[in-house]
C-alpha cells in the first residue's frame, strides 16, 4: 500500500531529517512512502480557484491574511487528489511515525473519506476523488456557514482556520468517517508508559512543547531536535 505525505518549505528547522525518518518508518513496514510538494498540488486544475477562495475565506473568518503554514495545510489535499490510484490510500503528516503498523490494520470502509485520528487530519484514508471533494467542501461549507463559523471561531479563541479547525467546526454536517482519536494513532507523550501499546505515533510540535514543561532537563534542547530524538527512540535508532 502507498502512503503519501506533503512537504512545503515554510522555514521550520530540521524538517528534512524528520521526513527521512517518516519515510524510513513506513518503508520498514512494507509501505511505499511518497513525499509530495507544492508542484504536485499546482497540477490540479482547481488550484488557482482553491487558492483564491482560501485567501478570501480566511480573511472573512480570521480577520487576517492567511499564513504560509495554514495555506500548506489546505493545499496538501490537492496534491493528494491528483494521484492516479483508483484504490484508496493513506496520507499522513510527516511526523506520524510508524513503529509496527501494517496495511491490514486499516478497518475502514472506502465508501467515504476516513480521518483516522478523530478530527485531526494528520492521518487519513481515501481516494483521489474523495480528497478533491474534501477541498471543495472546505470552500463550500466555509462560504455557506461563514457567519456561524466566524462566531464559533472567535468564541473558541482559535489560532488559525486550518484544515483541522475546519473539521472541528463543521464535523456535525460533514459526511465523513471520523475514527476515534486513539483507534489508530497516539499523540506522542514523553514518559507515558501507556504508549508501549500503540504502533503509530504523532510526534507533533505539541509533543515537544509538553515534554519541555514536564521534563525540565529537556528545556535546553531545540524543539525540532527534540522531536527527532523522540522519533529515533520510537524506532530504536
Structure description:
With 237 residues, this protein is of the alpha/beta class. The protein has one domain (2-185): Spore Coat Polysaccharide Biosynthesis Protein SpsA, Chain A (Alpha-Beta Complex). The protein is built from 9 helices and 8 strands. The strands form 2 sheets. It has a 5-stranded mixed β-sheet with strand order 2-1-3-5-6, with helices on both faces. Helix 1 links the parallel strand 1 and strand 2 (32-36). The mean pLDDT is 95.
Give the key terms:
single chain; 16% strand; 3-stranded mixed sheet; 237 residues; 45% helix; alpha/beta; Spore Coat Polysaccharide Biosynthesis Protein SpsA, Chain A; globular; 9 helices
- Residues in helices, as a percent range: 40-55%
Uncertain residue ranges: none
Helical run tally: 9
- The whole-number mean of residue pLDDT values reads 95
CATH architecture: Alpha-Beta Complex
Strand order of the largest sheet: 2-1-3-5-6
Main sheet properties: 5 strands, mixed
CATH C-level class: Alpha Beta
Radius of gyration: 18 Å
Instruction: State the CATH topology.
Output: Spore Coat Polysaccharide Biosynthesis Protein SpsA, Chain A
- Count up the domains: 1
Structural class: alpha/beta
SSE topology string:
EHEHHHEEEHHHEEEHH
Beta-strand content estimate: 15-25%
Q: Using DSSP, what is the number of strands?
A: 8
Terminal residue distance: 24 Å
Label the overall shape: globular
